[in-house]
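Write out a record, focusing on structure:
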Amino acid sequence: MPEKVCIVGSGNWGSAIARIVGGNAAAYADFADSVNMWVYEELIDGEKLTEIINTRHENVKYLKGYPLPHNIVAVPELADAVKGATILIFVLPHQFLPRLLPVIKANLTPGAKAISLIKGIDFDEKGLVLISDTIRKGLGIDVSVLMGANVAKEVADDDFCETTIGYSAGSEANGKILHKLFNTKLFQVTLAPDAAGVELCGALKNIVAIGAGFCDGLGYGGNTKAAIIRIGLVEMMRFCKKFYQGVKESTFFESCGVADLITTCYGGRNRKCAAAFAKSNGERKWDDIEAELLNGQKLQGTLTAKEVHEVLVRVDAVDEFPLFTKIYSISYAGHKVNTITDIAQPELFEHNA
């Protein structure tokens, strides 16, 4: 039986990835032709967004001007969208998962698998929680992750790029079928047997992008921004190794690592919003900036900075992460934006750290 695919989410990134998934589902016999996409129903000039997508084959709110394959079917009810699906693609803000997962669980197809494209992390009373772990626990199925240097508009423009799919030990077969679902000549997928490392890179780089945006908003030059990016990469690696056993150093040199870090620090929503925050000397509220600049999308880096800081406080490791801590302090604790460079590196960041 061919795999039945459902995309859970329909924002900017979800719609861009639907162009790829829809094309590959139609091209390969491994997949059913029709791909459901769960769409949170909205009215656009009095017309339902799902009806617009299904008749005009375009997400006019989140990816205007880019046609969707005709086999992408917008479905407003989540239970209907996931029914019969054997591959679930999660691509929406992770804050929505707690109320969505029970609905999916009640309509889950036996033997289904999932892949998360969600860049973020969460935490509970015990500490850090990966989004893939939340999905895995909520549904009881295998969950891979896809992260990379993938600005949604550039992917939609069919610009050449790479991405990384991370899969867990023993799930190589799932990795291979997901590679076939996502890989194209212009969207090249690398497989990595390091789901945790791939996912953490995708989340943590958004914190660094906030710092890079501060630099842009302050008018700093390339030297300063490059230093922030390098220090950010060091702290990403240190964080992963501190909290997760088995994260591979090679993962940081895949698309999900250094490539995603670079592209996010030079483009994307986190850098853009942070630059606006810096230009206001830290006086504007993040919610107002998000509402003005992101067209309904969610800012990820500031929330991740807050979540990471809470974890670091719990384990008394704040001093080991001066850049992460400074970005949090500027974003939420009233530090001046121009203190972004007050991040003298402790001895533990020497070459053999």
Summary: The chain has 14 helices and twelve strands.
